[in-house]
Amino acid sequence: MLDSFDFDVIRRSLGHLLRDGLTFTLKLTALATLGGVVLGTLLAVLRLRGPAFIGRIAALYVNAMRSLPLVLVIFWFFFLAPYIGQWIVHAERPVPVGIFASSLLTFTLFEAAYFSEVVRAGIQSIPQGQVAAAEAVGLSPAQVMRYVVLPQAFRNMLPIMLTQTIVLFQDTSLVYVISAPDLLGVASQVAHRDGRLVEMYVFVAAVYFGISLLASSAAGRLQARSALVHPPT
Amino acid sequence: MIEIQHVDKWYNPSLQVLKDCTTSVAKGEVVVICGPSGSGKSTLLKCVNGLEPFQRGSIAVDGTLVNDRKTDLPRLRARVGMVFQHFELFPHLTVQDNLCLAQQKVLRRSRDAAVETSTRLLGRVGLGGYGEKFPSELSGGQQQRVAIARALAMNPVAMLFDEPTSALDPEMIKEVLDVMVQLANEDGMTMLVVTHEMGFARQVADRIVFMDQGQIVEQASSGEFFASPRSQRAQEFLSKILAH
């Protein structure tokens, strides 16, 4: 039965798949994680320590993003981003944003909502005594956050963040709705061009599986190592 | 140095934890606050550097009002050292960085100057050569001595101690008390100490403040307090803890 398959198609298109497709996927994952963590941390800090009014807006944003299906958000941003760009720079026509920039913007804003919940839990896991001790030596609220709370919180959160990044890595495949040339998109093109759907989708699944497995075993090892010893409270 | 005037504090309208507390600590004086658990000792101490807000009365440290909205609290706290029951060293930093952090970020000392001060103070509390270790590698007594050094690194005008030995194993209590005794006797440090160590109180304290149920029940010189406590509640308290 296997005779009817032609797995050589993978070898023939490997360069294209990895150089273009996988690079798009990994770059999108890395940059969106970075942006999502930075923006998510800002949202979490605002919710926990900011003025009540700002905190409520941040909470509203997080809850709104978490209530929307990702595919819908990708779709909307792809069509809206040119108009937002037009509005920002006061151009006459919608500004072309490009598939990668639009995807990156979407994932950053979307993942920030999820990362902010992770960071919020991380901040709340730091004992109140640590905050009191940091305040007692004269650190300002911002310095307490920057030098005492966040470094410890991030260490505690690292395994969960890595897990969330794996989810993000898999979610990037949803950019197929805007025909983006990510790993799945590129493989899909080849599959349809050469009529090798099964071979290509098996290959893509194996790549996603391999990378995710590697990353989650790294997360497991981190979990075992990263626990900080806290004094009893 | 520390003036506490008619301080009232409520956690909620039906739970008053401090009732009309008035006392003071003069420059160079060592005052021990003692009393049964839940009497408000630690809470009063935390009011002194603004870690706990209070609703009525006033507290001034070296002329600066703690409860004034215009007071720069971080700046005031930098001048008042505090030592906690559970040490509260920063676990992600080495011992040396625990001492350097606020020196560099608050006092704006150079890294070299901060390291020099840290090294000198670690030597003083008997922990020279421990700078590169992390808090988790130290015993409780060692951690508490680092915490004292961390507070001293800021050149405080006064030190607050919140039950500094109650989380320690018995054999480590002495090493911490020794550092505190030295601080009081040799440096003439102004100290406000919440503790159950009556030996320390008798030996070092100039004055004892006895609290019960949020009130300051009795204040007397150390000799007077231990020889003949005036209030019945202080008598009961002393008979309970000095019985063994």
Tell me what you see in this structure:
The complex is a heterodimer of chains A (233) and B (244). Chain A has 233 residues and is mainly alpha-helical. The C terminus of chain A is likely disordered. With 244 residues, chain B is of the alpha/beta class. Chain B has a six-stranded mixed β-sheet, with helices on both faces. In chain B, a hairpin with a 2-residue loop joins strand 1 and strand 2. The longest helix of chain B has 18 residues. Chain B is globular. The model of chain B has no long low-confidence stretch (mean pLDDT 92). The chains are: A mainly alpha (233), B alpha/beta (244). The interface between A and B is medium-sized, with 23 and 34 residues.
Give the key terms.
heterodimer, A: 233 residues, mainly alpha, 8 helices, flat, disordered C terminus, B: 244 residues, alpha/beta, six-stranded mixed β-sheet, 9 helices, 38% helix, globular
- Mean pLDDT over all positions of chain B: 92
Strand proportion of chain A: under 5%
Roughly how much helix do the residues of chain B carry, as a percent range?
Answer: 25-40%
- Note the gap between the termini of chain B: 36 Å
Helix and strand run of chain A:
HHHHHHHH
Can you count the helices of chain A? 8
Assembly form of the protein: heterodimer
What is the succession of H and E elements of chain B? EEEHEEHEHHHEHEHEEHH
What is this structure's SSE topology?
The complex is a heterodimer of chains A (233) and B (244).
Chain A: H1 8-49, H2 52-66, H3 70-89, H4 99-124, H5 128-136, H6 141-171, H7 183-194, H8 197-226
Chain B: E1 2-12, E2 15-25, E3 30-34, H1 41-48, E4 56-61, E5 64-65, H2 73-78, E6 80-83, H3 95-105, H4 111-124, H5 140-152, E7 158-162, H6 170-187, E8 191-194, H7 198-204, E9 207-212, E10 215-221, H8 222-227, H9 232-241
Parallel strand pairs in B: 3-8, 3-9, 6-7, 7-8
Antiparallel strand pairs in B: 1-2, 1-4, 4-5, 9-10
Helix pairs in contact in B: 3-4, 3-5, 4-5, 5-6
